[in-house]
Specification:
single chain, 490 residues, alpha+beta, Alpha-Beta Plaits, 4 domains, three-stranded antiparallel sheet, 15 helices
Length: 490
């Protein structure tokens, strides 16, 4: 009524079957709900309703312009008799100021809107906030990050609510989006604990026995690495085998043989895993390990070669214990090759193994077999020797064709356990003898190898080449001989 008198315009009330359809003063529409209630937009100090004491008006201390052309509400604010109401901005807000605030909202058009568009926006927030949360949380692995993101999402929802209400007057809901976000968070955490962490524990148990804990962590954080499929990848394959194991098993009691084998395999596996390798399988007394899968290792050649050297050093310590307990020691040969292979989970959905297949694996196995013929503990291919890094000494051994493979391969021996000066001398003199050997100067080559044997009497490769030189001196190879040795056995 006050505004009707102030503007000298009629108040119109529209009624529908569902309730109040609208209220207007002249051409000024007032947003109300079905019950005819208007939501008050309190100013909270930004544009407060001006309150003037009546005593100042009666005393004439207020200027004439203070009330001229103004809409004035008169009410009691004295403590004890005042009409006060709790509001969002003050727990004891004068009732007359509420009327004045409503009038000010209508005059300024400073309304809260709660129409069908705002309700639709509410529904969008209720649905969108939890969906976005679930999408992001599904990509976070650690619980602490998931919790931090939930708190961030709640804070963002509050800022969206504040911005829409304060700047646009859209009375959207804060409670429902926050409740939906909380339900999404709690549901995801329950799923994460019951399903994801259970799967993570399964992966840890399944892989911790043959790869290092660091690699297990990377697999758990990215389980897609273990899908039932293979991919082509460069890897370094290591094979080791106990020499004369069949004879050893015939001489030793079964219980002692098992103890010896378990002690050997356990120590060797620890070394491989500590260097980031993956234990592919045990083949009786043999070990197959791969480097650079399932997790990529830029220095996989060096890691494999270092593992081989550490295995020989560890074996020397083990043999002292084996001789005390079982009366015998063991020796091993190690073959290493680097190349392309198919790696991945291969098998069926009921049973599969993470393994590697291809010519690279076969050649590594053949190089392990070649250690017996050359009397060398560690034989590697040129592909491995090319980038095995500093700190290792090696010498070229031969160019051979292994059984089951047409192409020739250049092989090298890692000189483990030798001082630098000795390794450099042995490598230099042996390569000089090889050059003479390939040049068909067998007598001069034999003299070079004899010189090596004077200093290193137990050098197997020099003894082998000395025998070859003597054989070729008596029976020269045919014209066109390329110096490639063909291995007749594995």
């Amino acid at each position: 009524m006050a505004l009707s008198e102030y503007w000298q315009k009629e108040i119109r009330l529209c009624i529908s079957a569902e309730g109040v359809a609208g209220v207007s003063v002249g051409d000024r529409a007032i947003p109300v709900d079905r019950r005819g209630f208007m939501r008050i937009n309190f100013y909270n100090g930004r544009q407060p309703v001006k309150m003037i004491p009546a005593s100042d008006v009666l005393a004439g201390t207020i200027g004439q312009d203070a009330l001229r052309d103004k809409l004035v509400f008169v009410g009691v604010t004295e403590v004890g008799i005042a009409d006060v109401r709790p509001t969002p901005v003050d727990s004891s807000f004068p009732g007359v100021a509420i009327h004045a605030t409503v009038a000010s909202n209508i005059i300024q058009g400073f309304f809260f809107h709660r129409d069908n568009g705002v309700i639709l926006l509410d529904i969008m927030l209720i649905c969108l906030v939890p969906l976005v949360m679930l999408w992001v949380m599904s990509r976070l692995r650690r619980t602490v990050f998931i919790t931090l993101f939930f708190l961030l999402a709640v804070a963002a929802t509050w800022f969206i609510f504040y911005g829409l209400v304060s700047s646009r007057g859209l009375l959207v809901s804060l409670a429902y989006p926050v409740i939906s976000a909380t339900i999404a968070y709690l549901s995801f955490q329950a799923f994460h604990i019951l399903v994801v962490q259970r799967h993570s524990r399964y992966l840890r148990q399944a892989f911790s026995s043959y790869i290092s804990p660091q690699l297990v962590d990377r697999i758990v954080s990215n389980p897609d690495m273990l899908a039932l499929k293979g991919k082509k990848q460069e890897i370094t394959v290591l094979f080791s085998d106990i020499r004369g194991f069949t004879l050893l098993s015939e001489k030793m009691p079964l219980e002692e043989l098992v103890q010896l084998l378990n002690g050997f395999l356990g120590s060797m596996t620890d070394i491989i895993m500590d260097k980031g390798g993956t234990l592919d399988k045990y083949i009786g007394d043999a070990i197959m390990a791969i480097f650079n899968a399932p997790v990529e290792l830029p220095d996989h050649r060096a890691r494999a070669v270092e593992s081989a050297c550490l295995m020989l050093r560890e074996l020397r310590d083990l043999n002292r214990d084996f001789r005390d307990r079982f009366g015998t020691g063991i020796s091993i040969g190690i073959g290493i090759h680097t190349g392309q292979a198919i790696v991945g989970n291969l098998g069926s959905t009921r049973r599969f193994d993470y393994t590697a297949v291809g010519d690279t694996v076969n050649l590594a196995s053949r190089l392990e077999g070649a250690t017996k013929m050359y009397g060398a503990a560690i034989v590697i291919s040129a592909d491995t020797a090319r980038d095995m890094g500093p700190g290792f000494y090696a010498r070229k051994l031969d160019r051979i064709r292994v059984k089951g493979r047409k192409g020739a391969v250049e092989i090298w021996q890692v000189l483990e356990g030798m001082e630098k000066d000795e390794a450099m001398f042995l490598s230099r003199e042996f390569h000089r003898g090889l050059d003479l050997y390939y040049s068909r100067e067998f007598s001069e080559a034999a003299a070079a190898f004899q010189g090596i044997l004077k200093r290193f009497p137990e050098d197997g490769p020099s003894s082998l080449y000395l025998d070859r030189c003597r054989e070729y001196s008596a029976n020269p190879p045919p014209v066109g001989w390329d110096g490639i040795f063909t291995a007749a056995t594995k």
